[in-house]
Model the fold of this input.
Amino acid sequence: MKEDERAKGGGKRAPISKARKRAVGIFISCLGLVLTGSHLISELLEEGSLTGLLEHLAHPPLIFFHCMVFLSIPAFMLTGYFYQKQQKLIENLEERTRELKEAQEQLLKSERLAAIGELAAMVGHDLRNPLQAITNASYVVNELVKKMDFAGEKFSLIPPSLRKEMFDEYTQLTKMMGIIDESTEYANKIVSDLRDFARTKEPELTEVDLESLIQETLSGISIPEKVRASIRPDQALSKLYIDPTQMRRVFTNLTTNAIQAMPNGGELTISTSLKNGFVSIAFQDTGVGIPKEDIEKLFTPLFTRKSKGLGLGLPICKNTVEAHGGSIEVESQEGKGSTFTVKLPVKKGGEANSEEGKHPECG
Done:
């Protein structure tokens, strides 16, 4: 890992480069001295002149030469030792610097998320009351509109030309009230997202049949005719301890995102599996996919590529899943689709058979 980091850094290691140059220089010098001395001694031995050899060895410059040779060997060993120590210190310093930088980035991220959470709580609180007033007023107007009797005797007394004009206005009014109701519902969803992001509630764990919860989630979502949704449950899994309300919202969000990613239709497959004490719920679609540069930003608050929305849906899902002690992962390829996988731990008391289950498909 450290070698990869050094490779990514472009090889900028000035201190290490200088140390290497010094070590190589000393090694070459020592090697040259050893080779020169060895060559001289071998020539003398070939001549068979032991007296000449002793005379050469007794010569002061040669004595000095041999002393330098033997002293250079431990000097070279010490140089290599200190070089390794220096390299280790530099690596430790780089590791500590990297950890400090990561901690600083995490602190800045936490502070930013805290600021967003406070703002979300204030905005959500201030918007809730006027939205409730709009909802109540819309309900009253809708009730009044429903009381208009266009088939009664009073309506028949109105001139035909005026009667048609009144009916057209009634139709237009009904349409406008429908738009108001939809917009109010969408605004309420934004307020709910702001509130849920500002404070994630502690999950209230209860025993839940996971397959039934997924089926209930799908039944509460309007699925286009062009989209075919199926469930592939793992028969080795029966019960799971989760907060059904919170997890239903996670499943709803992931299912809705998958449907929106398939504007021209496609297949949505929700599969479950049990492995290593964790339950995996995978939401796989055959939609447009997600660009690589966006995958790392998906769970960042306020990041979205959609024309409508605040970009809080996936961050809320992530917070909810992590509050359950789990994690959420995503794999995607542009033009082929995406897979969001929720991994939840099997809580103590949950029922899970050890056998591997088949994956029968049910619509």
Notes: The longest strand covers residues 266-275. The longest helix spans residues 60-146. Strands lie at 206-209, 227-232, 239-242, 266-275, 278-285, 327-333, 337-345. Residues 145 and 174 are 8 Å apart (CA to CA).
